[in-house]
């Protein structure tokens, strides 16, 4: 189920751009083939590991919320950066990233942020997003 949600989130910008550009049938078929490849790639990801990663991320998010609400911005930022570094080395995250790269170039970067962008706190503060 979570794979389907992730896949839909990854696909939405692609479909929106395709509609905006008024793609012809050939381009649409090519895009759909790439989406199928991405779906096949996502199906290879261990669902239990993906769910565990989601639960872990939710826990960290709650901890960061609590730190930010207490005014412990420095501690929250340090924790967010440490967690993001850990996530960027996680095999499940790396596989999701690999699957997402299949459709790279179909969607402008500003409509589909990379995994690195989601976990990069070097130029923003984690408490400012909450």
Description:
This protein has helices spanning 2-21, 25-43, 47-69, 73-87, 91-101, 115-119. The chain is mainly α. It starts with a helix and ends in an 11-residue tail after the last helix. The model has no long low-confidence stretch (mean pLDDT 79).
Counted beta strands: 0
Specify the number of helices.
Answer: 6
Write down the Rg. 17 Å
Shape: elongated
> What is the succession of H and E elements?
HHHHHH
Short description:
By secondary structure, the protein is an all-alpha fold. The protein has one domain (2-129). The chain has helices at 2-21, 25-43, 47-69, 73-87, 91-101, 115-119.
Write the layout of secondary structure elements.
Blueprint: H1 2-21, H2 25-43, H3 47-69, H4 73-87, H5 91-101, H6 115-119
Helix pairs in contact: 1-2, 2-5, 3-4
């Amino acid at each position: 189920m979570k794979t389907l949600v992730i896949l839909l989130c990854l696909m939405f910008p692609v479909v929106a751009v395709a509609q905006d550009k008024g793609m012809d049938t050939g381009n649409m078929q090519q895009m759909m083939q790439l989406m199928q490849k991405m779906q096949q790639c996502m199906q290879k990801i261990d669902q239990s590991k993906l769910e565990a990663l989601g639960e872990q991320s939710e826990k960290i998010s709650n901890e960061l919320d609590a730190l930010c609400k207490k005014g412990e911005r420095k501690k929250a930022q340090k924790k967010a950066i440490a967690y993001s570094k850990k996530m960027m080395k996680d095999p499940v995250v790396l596989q999701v990233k690999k699957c997402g790269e299949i459709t790279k170039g179909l969607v402008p970067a500003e409509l589909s942020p990379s995994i690195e962008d989601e976990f990069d706190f070097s130029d923003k503060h984690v408490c400012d997003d909450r």
